[in-house]
Design brief:
By secondary structure, this protein is mainly α. The protein folds into 2 domains: 90 residues, no CATH class; 168 residues, no CATH class. Strands 1-3 form a two-stranded antiparallel ribbon. α2 crosses α11 and α6 packs across α9.
């Protein structure tokens, strides 16, 4: 979700050349793509006191917002769960959900391909040409790795405990969120942009305790964070090879590794928010101190690597930059307040029946 202003570069149809040949010793993506170019190198991350202090202040603000909003939202959902779940079984939302279940039976592989295609549009240079195919394959591999690191460890832990590996199920609403994130990135001209890659859910036939469910979930979060940071190191190694921007392997590798880094960091930073329908809620319910440590590390890495001073967005540590950096988290906070306000101030159900 790295808010870096990107300047699209026209790409001739049928060629991998994304931009004029870069000078030797070029930094970052060497013109391979706007998406890859926007990701900072290891050496670009600033660790001076002012930078770390600014990131720490933003992290503290986010923790306060999310902590308060989560309690408010979860209590509201718990108190009105039957009514809220009914929204998705009848009425307008129910009809949409039923249509999705009938018409979006793509299977896991089809859903992964569609998710990779949606993610590819985060790069303004993506298009129907040879370069676009290579970039699509890079995003496809990146989506698989992030989903594997996030879902496979919990599934294996569940199998060790119950003997039930479970199975993966496409989540159409998650794909809609992914498309919305890409749209925001393109409209706002943000690079490397917002990527939401957790578009599959795991279904089990045998249940476990809340504590065990929290432990299973934290395995996936840790592995995803680890995979993201390793991909960042490998991305720098690929860049140091000095391959030309027109090289297919260079574009594929940088896209795949960049997708793992961006999507993985955002999966942990956003996915660990302790809202009722998010994976982070399972950890938050089980062990709040451990959740706080893991969520704090994920958000701090997200701030430093993807929206930090190297992007130019928060380099001045001004109020506007903080608003942009914490925008997604603030939206979740506002959504929690609106949910609580709806149930708190609406007419009582008995009064509504009398009016009819």
């Amino acid at each position: 979700m790295s808010p870096v202003l990107a300047t699209p570069v026209p790409t001739p149809t049928g060629t991998l050349a994304a931009s004029p040949p870069p000078a030797s010793g070029c930094k970052k993506g060497c013109g391979s793509s706007s998406f890859a170019d926007a990701i900072p190198d290891l050496g670009d991350i600033q660790t001076d006191a002012a930078t770390l202090g600014g990131s720490g202040a933003l992290l503290a603000l986010i923790l306060l917002i999310i902590g308060f909003a989560a309690e408010l939202f979860n209590d509201t959902v718990e108190s009105n769960y039957d009514e809220i779940s009914g929204w998705f079984k009848k009425g307008g939302l129910g009809k949409v959900n039923a249509w999705i279940q009938r018409h979006l039976r793509l299977g896991v592989v089809g859903f992964l391909l569609l998710s990779a295609l949606v993610s590819s549009f985060v790069d303004p240079q993506f298009g129907p040409n040879e370069r676009g195919v290579v970039e699509f394959l890079g995003f496809f591999v990146g989506v698989i790795v992030v989903l594997g690191s996030f879902k496979l460890p919990p599934m294996l832990a569940h199998k060790r405990k119950t003997g039930d590996l479970g199975h993966l199920r496409p989540l159409p609403w998650a794909l809609a969120i992914s498309a919305a994130f890409v749209l925001v990135s393109r409209v706002g001209n943000l690079q490397p942009g917002y990527l939401y890659g957790i578009i599959l859910g795991a279904i089990f036939t045998r249940e476990v305790s809340d504590a065990e469910e929290g432990r299973e979930t934290i395995y996936g979060s840790i592995w995803t964070l680890f995979a993201s940071l390793i991909s960042w190191v490998l991305l720098n190694a690929v860049r140091n090879q000095g391959l030309p921007a027109s090289d297919s392997f260079n574009l594929f590798a940088q896209t795949a590794l960049g997708c793992i880094l961006v999507s993985g960091l955002e999966a942990t930073a956003f996915g660990l928010m302790p809202l009722r329908f998010m994976p982070g809620y399972l950890i938050y319910r089980w062990n709040r101190p451990l959740w706080g440590v893991l969520f704090g590390i994920s958000v701090f890495a997200f701030i430093q690597i993807l929206i930090g001073p190297t992007s130019g967005y928060v380099s001045a540590l001004n109020p506007a930059a903080f608003i942009v950096a914490g925008g997604i988290f603030a939206i979740f906070g506002a959504f929690s307040l609106l949910t609580w306000g709806y149930f708190r101030f609406r007419p009582a159900p008995e009064a509504q029946e009398l009016e009819r």
